[in-house]
Amino acid sequence: MNVLALLLCGLLFAGVAQAQTAESSKKQGAPASTRSTGDIVPLPSIKTLTTAQAAGKKLFVQKCSVCHLPALPSYTAYGPLLDNNVVSDRGEDAVREQIKGGSARMPGFQYELSSVEIEQIVGYLKTLDLANRD
């Protein structure tokens, strides 16, 4: 089993365990969680996106979100949160190259994603504003 599959199984198991804990807390009359909904990263509705941005969202959720978004309110992301600020700070070309080539902590997707798909992901990232998510 590859590392990504193990990671996804671990996240799924943690989510089930947290849901079971919340359910048992409800039965005992205790509050389910002390986390606020502000801890959850909201993603824009597909209805507000262009066709290319919607395709980018799908690819981002499939390929990137496991590391670049917290899976649950109680977890932090493995990699940096990605949004329009990252794209504007680093530049679109640098973001494209990062996606293609990867880094020591990130796999490169040059053999998995086409240039059109990478462009769709960059276009989608430009719709995100995680700095102002309160």
Description:
The chain starts with a helix and ends in a 9-residue tail after the last helix. α2 packs across α5 and α3 packs across α4. It is globular. It folds into two domains: 1-34; 37-132, Cytochrome Bc1 Complex, Chain D, domain 2. The longest helix is centred in the first third of the chain and has 25 residues, at 3-27. The chain is mainly α and 134 residues long. It is 53% helix and 0% strand.
List keywords for this structure.
single chain, 134 residues, mainly alpha, Cytochrome Bc1 Complex, Chain D, domain 2, globular
Beta-strand share of residues:
under 5%
The number of distinct structural domains comes to: 2
What would you call the structural class? mainly alpha
Stretches with pLDDT under 50, minimum 5 residues = 11-38
Radius of gyration: 17 Å
Overall mean confidence score, pLDDT? 77
Q: What coarse outline follows from CA principal-axis ratios?
A: globular
Helical fraction:
40-55%
Helix count from the secondary structure assignment: 5
Q: What's the level 1 CATH class of the largest domain?
A: Mainly Alpha
- CA(first)-CA(last) distance: 38 Å
CATH topology label of the largest domain:
Cytochrome Bc1 Complex, Chain D, domain 2
**CATH architecture group name of the largest domain:** Orthogonal Bundle
| H-E order | HHHHH
Q: CATH superfamily of the largest domain, called what?
A: Cytochrome c-like domain
Largest sheet: none
The total strand number stands at 0
